[in-house]
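Give me structure tokens for this 245-residue protein.
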Amino acid sequence: MDRQQISRIAHADHPIAVPLDDDSVRRLLARGVPRGDARVLDLGCGGGEWLLRALAEHPRLTAEGVDTSETALAHAEEAAARLGVRDRLVLHREDATRFTAPHRFDLVLCVGSTHAFGGLPATLAAAREHLAPGGRVLVGDGYWESEPSAEAVEMLGDLTDLPTTLDRVVADGWTPVGGHVSTRGELDDYEWSWTGSLASWALDHPTDPDSAQALEAATTHREQWLRVYRDSMGFLCLVLRPTSD
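Here you go.
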């Protein structure tokens, strides 16, 4: 069982692959989509859940998603067909860091995928290259809510605290026009769903050759969450506009 398959099963009951509830997602999209006929790009779209929700909400919106996972993109395509929005969605199977398009986008998303670019600053630099004049970026990344352990830093990377994160974003030429800090409830619900969905699948498929690996992955993840980063990591989403185009 590879990481993509583990992630697919773990997110079965929480298709937004970050610690946000449905209302938070709705409010962030409402703030991020500048108008009903916007062109939207998701860098690291996974199963396309953000794009599917935006397309369902705005009948004239068009969207493009970029991801390396064939399975995730197939899921996005199937879901779009069920929702009746397939004709307004273009999917690209490629590395988001190398993606180019002949046009710019009114909203560029990268929520929970900043690691693909090497962190938040590099993600914002890439998003800027795709952004149309007057456009917005919706980005989501972790931050340190309290002093992390060395193990947490090794596991999650070189994050900063919330004020420093905002200072760096502003210094890089961006102005926040919206945002959301995930609540403790959102953070815990996400982790319980991730580990619970994967563990349930393992218990429901005891004869599957991947069952033991899935249960071990759920157990390991739960231990890391509870013992390594639960008390130190938060999650931040920002809606940003360039301070000067």
